[in-house]
Design goal:
Radius of gyration: 21 Å
Helix content: 40-55%
Order of helices and strands: HHEHHEHHEHEHEHEHEHEHHHHEHH
CATH architecture of the largest domain: Alpha-Beta Barrel
Largest sheet: 6 strands, parallel
Bound molecules: zinc ion
Number of strands: 9
Strand content: 5-15%
Number of domains: 2
CATH topology of the largest domain: TIM Barrel
């Protein structure tokens, strides 16, 4: 009886702290311990695309987004209360700019819109959010029970081939840059677009300038040759802000074992993406097959609802719901953590959810509020509290502090080349 009421108390604690009920079939004792560890830990998520709806739909994160959908039909995963419920200390908002800007232009303008939207969100939530740019500020925010909002550029198109623009992005608070998205820049190859054979000489200058400033080189989305070139040049730790392991699912968005070994030597961190198609080969295959199979119906819906975006999104969702695909649970995230731990070591793995950038999350997970599930699964598999804390945030903090040391006080010191490609 006593034991039961203690468990009930702990469960109440779990519910009120993380808005997260214990998953069906979970071990109550492990769950309670996981909740405790998670609450104490510094939890950092490497990649969140909520910035797109902040700009495109003027989304206000003070309001609940639970059960709501983005323009485009994907579910929301983030708002202030969900970040709090997830026990998050540091969330990197992605300053995402599409590779299509290589044709259309406007990359830098788009990035400025997103950076402004990020600051506006912090300004309207002063009691809960704070802008952070250093590892030390993240630790301080934890003590004050605040959530750090950090920024990382997704898509090197933003700098429009100008090291001056890169420096200005640093001054605005950007602390990582994914060298490409899915399309090559003029100086580096993407995972789906290889035309330079990795990084060009200017691309190597970009890496050196990022080291000098103190911006993480983010190897998510780039080709394996670009990953290796960046590792050849970088004197600071690199990160993958939202990629898993090819050893678990051989997808071009994941990182191969030989690069994992190099990242271990480099002191970097691979932050595992939660997207089921990157986590699991069967989901990826079934998702691709479903897209091909439903294309005629999708095209017909696009024509039928060409003047009503919301009706189109609703119809697509209905069609996909009627054609379900295999869905792994959140435990699959920990399969990637296990693999990276095995190949690179526990010091080189972290979390990079891709919340609000992906159309679905693993079964059991609805959004930022559910991060404790990953802690639970690590604990269930026998990870120590120290190792869990490394994965949740300490590894990223260590790498960030090292990156800051490499940059030293050379940042914005009047140094740096004015070089442009054209
Ligand atoms: Zn991405």
């Amino acid at each position: 009886m006593k034991k039961i009421s203690a468990i009930c108390l702990l469960l109440t604690f779990a519910v009120t702290t993380f808005s997260q009920t214990m998953p069906a079939g979970a071990d109550p004792a492990i769950w309670a311990k996981a909740v405790k560890i998670h609450k104490k830990a510094i939890v950092i998520d490497g990649h969140n695309d909520i910035t797109s709806p902040l700009v495109d739909e003027d989304t206000d994160l003070r309001n609940s987004t639970t059960g709501k959908f983005h323009l485009g039909g994907d579910p929301f995963h983030t708002d202030v209360s969900r970040l709090k419920a997830g026990g998050i200390t540091g969330e990197f908002f992605a300053i995402y700019v599409s590779g299509s800007t290589m044709e259309t232009g406007g990359a830098m303008h788009r990035a400025v819109d997103m950076i402004d939207a990020t600051y506006r969100e912090v300004e309207r939530n002063p009691n809960d959010l704070v802008s952070c740019t250093t590892a030390d500020e993240i630790r301080k925010a934890k003590k004050k029970n605040k959530i750090c909002i950090l920024m990382g550029i997704e898509g090197g198109y933003v700098m429009e081939d100008s090291l001056a623009a890169l420096r200005v992005m640093y001054r605005l608070g950007v602390r990582y840059m994914t060298l490409t998205h899915n399309v090559a820049t003029n100086w580096g190859d993407a995972h789906r677009d290889e035309k330079h054979g990795g990084l060009t000489e200017f691309g190597k200058d970009v890496v050196r300038e990022m080291n000098r400033l103190g911006i993480f080189i983010d190897i998510s989305h780039i080709s394996v040759k670009t990953m290796n070139d960046a590792l050849d040049v970088s004197t600071a730790p690199v990160i993958a802000s939202h990629s898993g392991a090819r050893g678990v699912n051989d997808h071009t968005r994941n990182v191969p074992d030989d690069v994992l070994k190099r990242v271990a030597k480099n002191g970097g961190v691979i932050m595992v993406n939660f997207y089921p198609s990157f986590l699991d080969a069967r989901t990826n295959k079934e998702e691709n097959e479903r897209s091909a199979r439903l294309k005629p119906q999708m095209d017909a819906l696009a024509e039928q609802f060409k003047n009503d975006r919301k009706a189109f999104d609703d119809a697509v969702r209905k069609l996909e719901d009627a054609n379900p695909i295999y869905m792994p649970t959140y435990a699959r995230i920990v399969d990637h953590i296990d693999h990276i731990k095995q190949i690179a070591g526990i010091d080189h793995v972290g979390l990079g959810s891709d919340f609000d950038g992906v159309p679905m999350l693993p079964a059991g997970m609805n959004g930022a509020e559910d991060l404790v599930l990953v802690t639970y699964e690590m604990l269930r598999r026998g990870y120590s509290e120290t190792d869990i804390k490394k994965v949740l945030g300490e590894n990223l903090l260590r790498a960030m502090a090292q990156m800051e040391r490499v940059a030293g006080n050379r940042q914005i010191s009047g140094q740096g080349s004015l070089k442009r490609i054209k």
